[in-house]
Design brief:
mainly alpha
Length: about 350
């Protein structure tokens, strides 16, 4: 057994480039695991800078100097950023306030519907079971109220963090764009010369991550916009919040949109009851979900590495369990990273075996 393990270790770990790649991956994992929460503004700035850098490179094709393109793109980004803060956030906060104020009525509606079930289905639903469900519903509603109180108490701290982010993120984005090459040259000083395998993995992951990021941003905007138009046209309450959540939910493949179907239908039920309008919301949501899953997402993400659905679901479960929401968001890029590492690792080991033979 020891000889088998030694042969296996020699086969896969004899190349110094493999060891450098493993050390870099381990260092990155430890950095995110221990300091990820503190570095969220930096990660957000890097993601925004990646998206804006593609626009800068597009302008450079028309012989625009990079320095001029950086200032122009950053200025447009600031205008969009301020528009979101001034126009969009007040609308979202207003609809959230309406939703919180309507929660007691929603709970009462559920209670009244539950009390009617034993009369409608006497042989199937018992009053004792309905009493238990009502008790659970009351306790859950009390927990929601306590969480809202905690949120209001900690709102000052959250407001301070939001203000810091609003100042810090644009500041970091500007310098990531302006000093991109200088930052890359500085980072190369800390990487050994035997970094060919790491560079190969980096190039593949960078291309796939950028394509995934750009495609997902466009998909979120499309899903958000088309669902908002549909919800507002039918007259569903809180269309901005629900459509925004549906758009964000596409970050979690296969699961996000299916999960968001529940609150959308519940809001429609509380607003209209079981009827034509609720069924219309269900039909429209299913149609838009099919449109996104079969046409929009494949079109926008056609250049992303194809990963089997089982691997994607496993990545969602693993990375979501480790990093929570951000693990769910970056499950596919992390799975792509693992795929690229394994592919480069096995190909290097195979080439070394051929050279030795």
């Amino acid at each position: 057994m020891k000889q088998i393990l030694r042969r296996w270790a020699k086969h896969y770990f004899s190349d110094p480039q493999v060891m450098i790649l493993i050390i870099l991956l381990l260092a990155g994992f430890l950095l995110i695991f221990f300091f990820g929460r503190m570095l969220i503004p930096v990660f957000m700035s890097i993601i925004i800078a990646l998206l804006l850098d593609s626009v800068i490179e597009w302008l450079q094709r028309f012989h625009v100097r990079r320095a001029v393109a950086v200032y122009l793109v950053f200025f447009l980004f600031l205008i969009l950023f301020l528009d979101i803060l001034i126009i969009l956030l007040p609308l979202i906060s207003h609809q959230i306030g309406e939703l919180v104020s309507d929660l007691p009525d929603m709970v009462n509606t559920v209670k009244s519907e539950l009390t009617l079930l034993p009369r409608k289905y006497p042989g199937i639903v018992s009053e004792e079971r309905i009493t238990q469900l009502t008790f659970v519903l009351n306790s859950e509603f009390n927990n929601i109220g306590k969480n809202i109180i905690k949120l209001s108490v900690s709102s000052v701290r959250g407001l301070i963090e939001a203000l810091v982010y609003m100042v810090l993120v644009p500041f970091l984005v500007f310098f990531f764009l302006k000093d991109k090459q200088a930052i890359m040259d500085w980072l190369k000083k800390f990487i050994p010369e035997e970094r060919g395998l790491a560079v190969l993995v980096w190039d593949e992951v960078y291309d796939q991550f950028f394509n995934y990021l750009r495609g997902k941003v466009l998909e979120i905007l499309f899903v958000w916009g088309i669902n908002y138009a549909a919800f507002a046209l039918i007259g569903l309450k809180y269309p901005l919040i629900l459509s925004l959540l549906v758009g964000i939910a596409v970050l979690v493949p296969y699961i996000g949109s299916a999960v968001m179907f529940v609150p959308v239908i519940l809001i429609a039920f509380f607003q209209w009851g079981v009827g034509t309008q609720m069924l219309s919301i269900a039909a429209v949501y299913a149609l838009l979900h099919a449109l996104d899953g079969n046409i929009i997402a494949p079109l926008l993400l056609s250049r992303v590495v194809k990963i089997h659905p089982i691997a994607i679901i496993m990545a969602i479960l693993i990375f979501g369990g480790i990093w929570g929401f951000w693990g769910l968001v970056f499950a596919i890029p992390l799975a792509t990273l693992m795929h690229a590492v394994l592919k480069a690792w096995t190909s290097t080991a195979a080439s070394l075996e051929q050279a030795s033979s």
